[in-house]
Design brief:
The chain is an alpha+beta fold and 180 residues long. The chain has one domain. It is 28% helix and 21% strand. The mean pLDDT is 89.
Length: 180
C-alpha cells in the first residue's frame, strides 16, 4: 500500500490540519506508550476540564495501550494528547465501521503490521503514525485524502511492505536513511 513519509509536520495538530474536517467526523483508536493525555486533570472526574466523555466504552476490548475515542478527540484535542516516540492513530467513520469489529479484525493492535495494512486496503480509514526522530507516515485508501496529505506534508511516497514482513533492519535503514 502506498503511503506518505514526511518530516514536515512538527506536531499532531500540524499533521492533521489539512484533513481537520474529516478528523472531526471520525472516531479514533489511538495508541500511545505514555498516554493518552498530557495533563492529569483530563482524567479527573471532579475537574470540569476532564475529557473522560470522549472515551468509548467498548465491552470485551482490553484497554492496555490502545484508547478508543468518540468523535471530537481530533482535531480539537490533538494538543492534549502525548506524542510518544511511537504513536499510532487510526481514524474511522463510525457510521460505517464499529470499534468492536475493527478491534477484533486487528486483534486489538494498531501498530503497523500486515493485518492492519490489509484492513486499510479494503476500508476507507485513515492511519497516521509518528516515529521518534520526527517522521510521520500516513496511509489511506481515499485518493483525495491521500493527495491532501502528499500536497500539505511535502513528503515522499513509500510502501507499507516493510511493515508487513518480519523485521529486517536493512528494510528500514533504506526507508529512513537520507530521507530528507
Amino acid at each position: 500500500m502506498k503511503g506518505i513519509l514526511s518530516k514536515s509536520p512538527q506536531t499532531l495538530t500540524d499533521a492533521i490540519k489539512p484533513i481537520a474536517p474529516t478528523c472531526a467526523k471520525y472516531e479514533w483508536a489511538i495508541a500511545l506508550q505514555n498516554g493518552p493525555y498530557r495533563e492529569d486533570y483530563h482524567f479527573d472526574e471532579d475537574d470540569p476540564r476532564n475529557l473522560l466523555y470522549l472515551f468509548l466504552d467498548i465491552p470485551n476490548i482490553p484497554n492496555e495501550w490502545i484508547h478508543w475515542f468518540r468523535r471530537g478527540i481530533l482535531p480539537e484535542h490533538a494538543e492534549d494528547l502525548i506524542c510518544d516516540e511511537w504513536s499510532y492513530y487510526l481514524g474511522y467513520d463510525p457510521d460505517k465501521y464499529s470499534a468492536q469489529n475493527i478491534s477484533q479484525q486487528l486483534k486489538n493492535d494498531i501498530s503497523p503490521h500486515k493485518e492492519l495494512f490489509d484492513f486499510l486496503k479494503e476500508n476507507d480509514c485513515i492511519y497516521i503514525m509518528y516515529s521518534d526522530g520526527g517522521l510521520w507516515e500516513a496511509y489511506c485508501k481515499n485518493p483525495l485524502t491521500y493527495n491532501i496529505f502528499m500536497t500539505n506534508w511535502g513528503g515522499k511516497e513509500v510502501e507499507s511492505w516493510p511493515w508487513e514482513i518480519p523485521y529486517d533492519p536493512n528494510n528500514f535503514a533504506s526507508r529512513y536513511s537520507n530521507t530528507f
